[in-house]
Amino acid sequence: MTMPTTTPPPGAAATPGTPYADVTASAATLRRFLHGLPGVDAVGLEARAAAVGTRSIKTTAKAHAIDLAISMIDLTTLEGADTPGKVRALGAKAVNPDPTDRATPRTAAVCVYPDMVATAKEAVAGTDVKVASVATAFPAGRAALGVKLADVRDAVAAGADEIDMVIDRGAFLAGDYLKVYEEIVAVKEACAGARLKVIFETGELSTYDNIRRASWIGMLAGADFIKTSTGKVGVNATPANTLLMLEAVRDFRAQTGVQVGVKPAGGIRTTKDAIKFLVLVNETVGEDWLDNHWFRFGASSLLNDLLMQRQKLATGRYSGPDYVTVD
């Protein structure tokens, strides 16, 4: 397949005059492009992802990986029982994860529902911690486009630096790829400068081929990040589906010059898990993505385990869960 060579500005959708403009010109051309992508070798993909888990990371390298992982966390609370007090506590923890060691890195962001954005913004004021907000009728995405866009605009008006949207999985699985693409483009415009993370809910897409296609739709539409999951279904981030998405952003940058971030979310709970994902990043896309501007963990419990492992490296003793705050 011959690819165009014109390079769009970072985050630009495939509008006329940019790469892939012909691909997104109609439902038929988009379908033809997506179904023309190379098929995914599931056995090979899972074998590569599993091989990464055998890497041994110790001592100084492990300490660096732990600090890097902490700095990449979107510290998240997305519960119906969220209160302003809980969100303020989360913000305080993001800014100062370990009060006994002020050298501990801050997390990248806190992630909350739109109605909690203003509270989170106050909690992290004066720091570089971002406020991310889920939107577009998260987590199911079952709402009219106007409602979804209002959800986004409300979060941005409250001060959100980043928006995590969910795609219409029903439209995607029905083969209406252009609807999914156009909705992402509309949400990107509503973000008004806030960075956009596009959530695929990979556990509902059924196949690796579908995850690859969704990744390309998101990137073509101008996503700043592509994200695995909401954390609200049975299957969330896995090494294999994250590897597949990393390969997609690598190929997209090679062909367009545009770099897109990746965010695995849901089910990443231990330091060992986080380090496996960092090795995946390093070996698949390289150091350019080993920064919280381009790679994030969507997590809530992960931070506590990273802090306990960090304390163990520093003191030689395993502190245990009583030495970290309960989220």
Characteristic terms for this protein:
327 residues; single chain; globular; 8-stranded parallel beta sheet; 8 strands
Characterization of the model:
By secondary structure, the chain is of the alpha/beta class. The protein is built from 12 helices and 8 strands. It has helices at 27-35, 42-52, 59-71, 84-95, 117-123, 145-157, 169-173, 177-190, 208-220, 239-256, 271-284, 302-315; strands spanning 73-76, 109-112, 130-134, 162-166, 195-199, 225-227, 261-263, 297-299. An 8-stranded parallel beta sheet has the order 7-6-5-4-3-2-1-8. Helix 4 links the parallel strand 1 and strand 2. Residues 1-11 have low confidence and may be disordered.
Share of β-strand residues: 5-15%
Largest sheet: 8 strands, parallel
Q: Spatial order of the strands in the main sheet?
A: 7-6-5-4-3-2-1-8
> What gross morphology would you assign?
globular
Rg of Cα set: 19 Å
Q: How far apart, in Å, are the first and last alpha carbons?
A: 49 Å
Low-confidence blocks of residues: 1-11
Arithmetic mean of pLDDT: 92
* Count of strand segments: 8
SSE ordering: HHHEHEHEHEHHEHEHEHEH
* Helix-residue proportion: 40-55%
By helix and strand content, what is the structural category?
alpha/beta
Q: How many DSSP H or I helices?
A: 12
Characterize this entry briefly.
The protein is of the alpha/beta class and 327 residues long. Helices cover 44% and strands 10% of the residues. It has helices spanning 27-35, 42-52, 59-71, 84-95, 117-123, 145-157, 169-173, 177-190, 208-220, 239-256, 271-284, 302-315; strands at residues 73-76, 109-112, 130-134, 162-166, 195-199, 225-227, 261-263, 297-299.
